[in-house]
Amino acid sequence: MTLKKHIPNLITLGNLFCGTVATIFAVESNFVGAGIFVVLGIVFDFFDGFAARLLNVSGELGKQLDSLADMVTSGVVPGIVMMKLIQLNIFNTPHSFFQDSILGISLLGLILTLGACYRLAKFNIDTRQSDSFIGLPTPAMSLFVISLPLIQEYSTIEFAQNLITNNYFLIVITILLTYLMNAELPLFSLKFKDYSLKKNIVVYLFLLASLILILLFNFLSVPIIIILYILISLIKK
Fold first, then answer.
1. Which end of the chain is more exposed for a tag (fewer CB within 10 A), N or C?
2. Whole-prediction pTM value?
3. Rounded CA gap, 143 and 31, in Å?
């Protein structure tokens, strides 16, 4: 029984490990490496809850540990990635107005980290979020942010690339995502209690649409999917 009780927590620590490695990559501006380990961390984050329900060993320790791991993978990492993107844009802009205050301006990206921390703390004491979410989940925010440098590097859509080289756009995105994480915004959960079509039709349609978008748009699909997730939740509500 003791070993079974700790299996979900070990999976959660896998999330924390991936988040720590992703942090190192993000500091080094290795956005591909950061992205890979953030995605791996989010996979661990999904399966720790799944394992806890399967083994019927949910507890307060697991809940707190989960949020602490998420704070790194889906809080610290996206904040650093956004900070680095703003820095790189300033460095690449000749005679930029912001160059003399580069550190101060780029630190605005860390607002995401503060917003994620506040959102996770609220989540732990909010009894309304057992079957759905109030506010954008931190993993969704993290995926949105880590997709930005990958879109800039690998997308063939010039308009999207140009947006990401615009610091005004990045700062607006930072503020908007921080607000969405902490807004009283009801969003459906992707966790299955059963797999019946009738009870999960919205989730199945969303997953199908997401798969199509990934095939069509590659990395650009990530922010589109998250926007679609918010819109479907609003319509469903």
1. N
2. 0.90
3. 12
